[in-house]
Amino acid sequence: MNSQAIKAAPKRKTREEILGLSADLFARHGYDGVSMRDVAAAVGLTQAALYYHFSDKDQLYLDAVAYDFREKDDALKDMLASNSTPWVRLERFVAGLAQMMVTDRDFLRLLHWVLLDSDEVRQSTLAKDVFGGMFVAVYDLAHELDPNRDAHLLAMSIFGLVIFHFQAGAIRKFMPGYSPSQDNPEVLARHICDLLRWSLTSPSGDAH
Amino acid sequence: MNSQAIKAAPKRKTREEILGLSADLFARHGYDGVSMRDVAAAVGLTQAALYYHFSDKDQLYLDAVAYDFREKDDALKDMLASNSTPWVRLERFVAGLAQMMVTDRDFLRLLHWVLLDSDEVRQSTLAKDVFGGMFVAVYDLAHELDPNRDAHLLAMSIFGLVIFHFQAGAIRKFMPGYSPSQDNPEVLARHICDLLRWSLTSPSGDAH
DNA sequence: GTCTATATAAGGATAGAC
DNA sequence: GTCTATCCTTATATAGAC
Q: How many domains in chain A?
């Protein structure tokens, strides 16, 4: 009925189960905050078994992050790929990204840890594997929105506007002007798109 | 001749030395990534001595972060306080914040860890002690820039535009359109202020 | 593939001398 | 105020049985 029939890929599942569960843990507590014991307990194995699947903790971490981001990356790229106008695609992407931040808290958390990682090799690997495709899509969109601006900076700004809002989510609540409605992805998306739109479509902006 | 000679403020220095040095360590490696042994070694004391000054690791961390941010908070508020026009103050603040991100890498790192902290109590404490004043200043500025927008969201966006750029600094280098000049605080500040300015001053922005 | 058992290091924290 | 010495827990990783 299904692919590998009964016998061909018998235990490949364990590896993916480890990846999924450890990604959750790393998202919540970071590399140093998660022990191999924690992972083993979550999966329902002993510590030693993990070393059958992964050479060491570093490798497990790297694979887990890549595993977790892959699917989100695909979803986000889908939001950008269509033949609507650039502004419609932007609106959909921003709302979709914001929604994703709300729906899956771990997405933001894991992203956070990745950005924070001080290991250069891990970062370059993840940058390409995980963010490369998504960034390029937004980068192209940025160029469409305003060919006269630095598309790289503009793309970064788009990400920053959405992501930072949620990064600061926990402390935002203690700041003046806070309203729970701001946690609504639609409200945020509206704010951001307005901010960009009345900027980028600016008619006769003069010298600068 | 040295130390104890004066008598007035004999050993208060040690505590501050611990705070300064441990702040560096926490900035670089986070709470879990720093051991009391690490701190002790950096300061030149033994582990046990730390427990004379701080009840436990949590308290040391909390005090160290607050200690480190206090001075930056003051500097940033100064940039916002003047009687120039709002746009001039914005430009100065953005450039100043960006410069600070470049000059003191630990500032960003520590901020990062604070945002990530999963401990609610620690977060509310730090939110008020550390960011409260700075946020209010930007919040007020945001209201001046455009009284018709949600000042809270706008203030957050201003922070996000600057901060995220540097958060993503390490992976940005692997993305298309990257240029070293974008690491220049002046260039970034120009980009951000343009983005906001041609937006917020938008003349006849119609319905939305 | 997964287990038990264990080696070995590093972690937070305390007691008591000075 | 700081030290030495130590306790106890937790950590990564391996060896070898099943």
A: 1
Task: Name which of A160, A179, A196 is nearest B160 (Cβ-Cβ).
Answer: A160
Q: What amino acid is encoded at B24 in this protein?
A: D
Residue B165 and residue A156: Cβ atoms within 8 Å?
yes
Kindly tell me if the per-residue pLDDT of B194 is higher than 70. Answer: yes
Is residue B208 included in any domain, yes or no? no
Q: Picking from A56-65, A107-116, A157-166, B7-16, which range would have the lowest pLDDT averaged per residue? A: B7-16
Residue A6 forms part of a structural domain: no
Give A186's contacts (C-beta < 8 A, 6+ positions apart): A95, A98
A200/B202 Cβ within 8 A: no
Name the residue facing B168 among A115, A173, A205 (closest C-beta). Answer: A115
Q: How many CB atoms lie within 10 A of CB A118?
A: 13
The CA distance from B148 to A55, in Å, is 57
Q: Which of B48-52, B76-80, B193-197 has the highest mean pLDDT?
A: B48-52
Instruction: Give the distance, in angstroms, between residue B57 CA and nucleotide D6 C1'.
Output: 20
pLDDT of residue A11: 53
pTM (2 decimals)? 0.84
Q: Which of A153, A174, A201, A206 best tests the B interface by mutation, with the highest count of B CBs <10 A?
A: A153
Choose among B207, B163, B192, B91: nearest CA to A194: B207
Q: How many whole angstroms separate alpha carbon A60 and alpha carbon A184?
A: 34
Instruction: Give the pLDDT confidence of B148-164 residue by residue, as tens digits.
Output: 899 999 999 999 999 99
- The nucleotides of chain D lying under 7 Å from a protein CB are 1-6, 10-16
The CA distance from B194 to B90, in Å, is 11
In a domain, A88, yes or no: yes
Angle at B194 between CA B191 and CA B199, to 5 degrees: 135
- Condensed to tens digits (0 to 9), the pLDDT of residues A69-120 reads 888 888 888 888 878 899 899 999 999 999 999 998 888 888 888 887 766 7
Cβ contact A53 with chain C strand, < 7 A: yes
Residue B141 maps to which CATH number?
Answer: 1.10.357.10
Question: Using the CA of A33, which nucleotide's C1' is the nearest one?
Answer: D11
| Domain assignment of residue A115, yes or no | yes
* Structural domain range at position A189: 12-200
